[in-house]
Structures are given as C-alpha cells and as structure tokens.
C-alpha cells in the first residue's frame, strides 16, 4: 500500500521505514501536495503493522513539516516539497564499464605489502592503552610535541639537518601544509613561482584560489632560477632533491641564486623534499634548508615512506610565520589524530623508521634495475631514462615520439595506466616525448610484463599510423 515495503529484520524501526518511504515519495512528487494521507487505522491495516506504529511515522512527518494536520480532518501533504520528478524517464545512456587496469604504472605508490603492519598495530595499541585524560582533549595546533622532537632527530640522522623542534609543525600530509602556506604567503600583485612541469597538487591549490602563477622551465638539473629576476614573487615552490616529475637535482649554484633572490626580494622558498629518502646511487641530497633556514620552508611527509593513509607530514617554519600558521591551523582543524602521532613518535624513537627505509631503499633499487633492464630489452638503447637514481618512478624519453591525451586514453582502454610528462606542463606540448613510469608498488614480474605490454601497444600504434 502506498509503495511501502517493510523489512522485519532491518535495523531501522518499522515506523521510521514508513516515514522514510513516504518522505521520499513526497519529495519525488509521487504523492502530490495537498493530497490526503490514509487514516492511521487504514494504513496500519494495509501494511500489516499496529496503528501505533503508523501514528509514530505520521508524527515524524508532522514534526519535520512534511504533513499538516487539523483535528477531525485527514493529514495532508504540505505545500512546496517536491524536489525531483517521480516520473523522470531513465537515462538510456549507461556509463560504460572501464577496462580493468592490467598494468598500473601510476606514480607515487609505495609497496604497502612490505610495511610492518603487525609492529604498527602494536604501537597503535600501546598508544591507546597509555592515553591520558589530558591527551583526549584538544592540544596545540603545533602537533604532538614528542613527535616534533623525534622528527628533528630523524632529520639529523637521515639528512644531516639541524632543526629546532620548536620550528616543526605537524600536518595532515604535505597537501595540508601547502594549503596553509599558499594562504599565508600570498601578497596581492605577486605570483607564486612553480616548476614546469610540476605536481598537479600544488598547481590546483594555487589555481583554485585564483592566485597568479609564474612558471620556471625545468631541464635535467631542475628549475631555471634565472626566470625569477624582475618578477614580483610571493613564494617559490621547488622539489630540488628529486624534481617532480623529471627527477633532476637542483645544483648548488642555482640553490644559492634562489636564496639570494629570496633575501633580496623578501619572499620564501617552499622546499618539497619529494622522495628524497629513496636515493640509490649515493647518499640523500642535502636540502636547501641546510643552506639557509631563514628563507626556506621545508615540507615533508610520511605518506610515501610509510603508507598514504597515515596522513601525517610536517612543515619547518621560520619564526616570523609561526604565529599566523597557528592561527590558521586553529580554525582549520586544530590538530591531527593523537594516536597516530604517538605511534609515529615511537616508530621513530625505536629506529624502526631507519630500518624500514633502509629495507625499502634496497627493494626499490632492485625494482628500478628491473625496470631499466626491461626498458632496454623491449625498446633498446634509444629510450633514455630521466631521474632514475631516486624516487618511485622514472621518466622515459622516446626521441621523435609524441604522447598526447589521446595516447593516454588509448592506453587506459587497453588496460595500461600511465601518464605523460606533458600532462604536468604549463605549456601544451612541452616534454611530449616522455612518459612517467611508476614502479614502487609493482613486483618484478609486473614490471617486466607491463613494459612488454607497453612496447607491444606502442609498436601497434606506430605500425598502424
């Protein structure tokens, strides 16, 4: 009756099921405004429930304003409630099911199967069992103080960085840090300088706010700093230790020039230390922060090192920015979840991070070698790798070829997920001869078979052109 179908074993009460069904039909226009509802006795008999159950459902409708009632008259549907048409014709065009991804070369994906989950679970459990009443309350927008101290020790061990824990602020990954920094550093009439190509995340953060951008072309040594001269700059964002996506290392001369420009023109440098833990040929590259901490904001994350769902990162802030950062963070979300911060502090303190990074550096180094051998075996020596000495992806240059959006879509339809470097460029067509191949999350066999599949796909395209 009235389209009401009740489920006896549902966790939703029978009265609320009646209420929800009638509400939905009213909003869809299937029960017209002004239409009289059946009496509680009649509806109860029709759907096989007690009269009290129907009365409770009608009370819900009346309380929320879906029906109006007068003593001695039937309840009627209130005016002006229809939102959608109950008779709308179904869309004849059904969304096509996407082709399953067989070979996934997505970038930035760590190998989560090797993360020590049991150890992490134990540390989370210990953090929960020792949680004090005070730690259940709101804390400082700085973050958990022992974690700030452990991050400072970790940076000294891993990067030879001497950092005051007072300057470290915990974030929900690097993304939140960038959101906060863009708003903190913006000045009217001044542009944010970004590398081209660069990560879409920072471009989106700035672009969504409508702030102006200045592009710095990137070569195999990173950003061309000379383009900043005579520019009104709010801040410069760089990935100097492993440029994303081309992988170059910003040389000391360009770093020094960047710092001099920042000092002379009163702007800050945002240093995103992208994938610097995983360097395979030599020791990790020293950050720009080590050259001058007064003009550099260092941003780091544990998402790639440990696991993305952790959502913990940090920013090292010069003193003049700290009060405003605390204000913005206080009215954004105050703090990160405490259990994960406590567990991560313990993970760092017990040197479990050091052990995990050492292991993964070896694992990823082996995968990198498998990838490069597979590329040479399938494509020969004509295909040149960029940025192959660190990180979880490689840029492959195919001289004389062009990989546009249609190629990327065709790959996806063939079950291959891959990106072109041109997708990350400010000027359409730049670096169109390069593909990005992520390998951190893949097994040796998946890498080998995936490169073979990519070679066959490209060969078919060349033969059919």
TrEMBL record:
Pfam families reported in the protein's UniProt record: Aminotran_1_2, GntR
SUPFAM superfamilies cross-referenced by the UniProt entry: PLP-dependent transferases (SSF53383), Winged helix' DNA-binding domain (SSF46785)
Required cofactor(s): pyridoxal 5'-phosphate
Superkingdom: Bacteria
Keywords tagged on the record: Aminotransferase, DNA-binding, Pyridoxal phosphate, Transcription, Transcription regulation, Transferase
One example GO MF annotation: pyridoxal phosphate binding
InterPro entries: Aminotransferase_I/II_large (IPR004839), HTH_trans_reg/aminotransferase (IPR051446), PyrdxlP-dep_Trfase (IPR015424), PyrdxlP-dep_Trfase_major (IPR015421), Tscrpt_reg_HTH_GntR (IPR000524), WH-like_DNA-bd_sf (IPR036388), WH_DNA-bd_sf (IPR036390)
HTH gntR-type domain boundaries: 12-80
Family: In the C-terminal section; belongs to the class-I pyridoxal-phosphate-dependent aminotransferase family.
The protein's name: GntR family transcriptional regulator/MocR family aminotransferase
Species for this entry: Cohnella phaseoli
Lineage summary: Bacteria, Bacillati, Bacillota, Bacilli, Bacillales
């Amino acid at each position: 009756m009235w389209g009401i179908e009740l489920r006896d074993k549902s966790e939703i009460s029978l009265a609320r099921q009646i209420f929800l069904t009638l509400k939905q039909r009213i909003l869809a226009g299937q029960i017209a405004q002004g239409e009289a509802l059946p009496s509680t006795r009649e509806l109860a008999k029709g759907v096989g429930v007690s009269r009290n159950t129907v009365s409770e459902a009608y009370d819900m409708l009346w309380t929320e304003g879906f029906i109006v009632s007068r003593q001695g008259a039937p309840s009627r549907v209130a005016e002006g409630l229809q939102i959608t048409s109950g008779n709308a014709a179904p869309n004849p065009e059904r969304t096509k099911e996407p082709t399953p991804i067989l070979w996934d070369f997505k970038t930035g994906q760590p190998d989560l199967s090797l993360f020590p989950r049991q150890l992490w679970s134990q540390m989370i459990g210990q953090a929960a069992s020792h949680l004090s009443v005070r730690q259940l309350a709101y804390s400082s927008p700085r973050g958990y103080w022992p974690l700030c101290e452990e991050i400072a020790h970790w940076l000294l061990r891993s990067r030879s960085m001497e950092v005051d824990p007072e300057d470290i602020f915990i974030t929900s990954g690097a993304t939140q840090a960038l959101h906060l920094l863009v708003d903190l550093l913006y000045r009217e009439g001044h542009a944010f300088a970004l590398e081209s190509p660069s990560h879409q995340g920072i471009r989106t953060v700035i672009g969504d706010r409508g702030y102006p951008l200045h592009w710095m072309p990137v070569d195999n040594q990173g950003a061309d700093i000379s383009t900043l001269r005579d520019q009104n700059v709010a801040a410069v964002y760089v990935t100097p230790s492993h440029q994303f996506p081309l992988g170059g290392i910003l040389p000391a001369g360009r770093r020094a020039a960047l710092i001099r420009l920042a000092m002379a023109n009163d702007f800050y440098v945002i240093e995103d230390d992208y994938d610097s833990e995983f360097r395979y040929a030599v020791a990790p590259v020293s950050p720009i922060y080590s050259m001058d901490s007064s003009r550099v904001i260092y941003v780091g994350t544990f998402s790639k090192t440990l696991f993305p769902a952790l959502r913990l990162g940090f920013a090292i802030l010069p003193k003049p920015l700290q009060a405003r950062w605390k204000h913005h963070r206080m009215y954004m979300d105050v703090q990160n979840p405490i259990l994960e911060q406590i567990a991560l502090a313990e993970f760092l303190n017990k040197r479990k991070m050091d052990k995990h990074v050492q292991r993964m550096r070896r694992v990823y180094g082996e995968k990198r070698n498998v990838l490069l051998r597979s590329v040479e075996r399938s494509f020969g020596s004509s295909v040149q790798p960029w940025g192959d000495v660190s990180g979880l992806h490689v840029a492959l240059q195919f001289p004389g070829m062009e990989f546009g959006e249609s190629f990327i879509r065709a790959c996806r339809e063939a079950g291959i997920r891959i990106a072109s470097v041109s997708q990350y460029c400010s000027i359409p067509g730049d670096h169109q001869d390069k593909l990005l191949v992520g390998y951190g999350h893949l097994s040796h066999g998946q890498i080998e078979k995936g490169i073979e599949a990519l070679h066959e796909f490209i060969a078919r395209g060349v033969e059919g052109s």
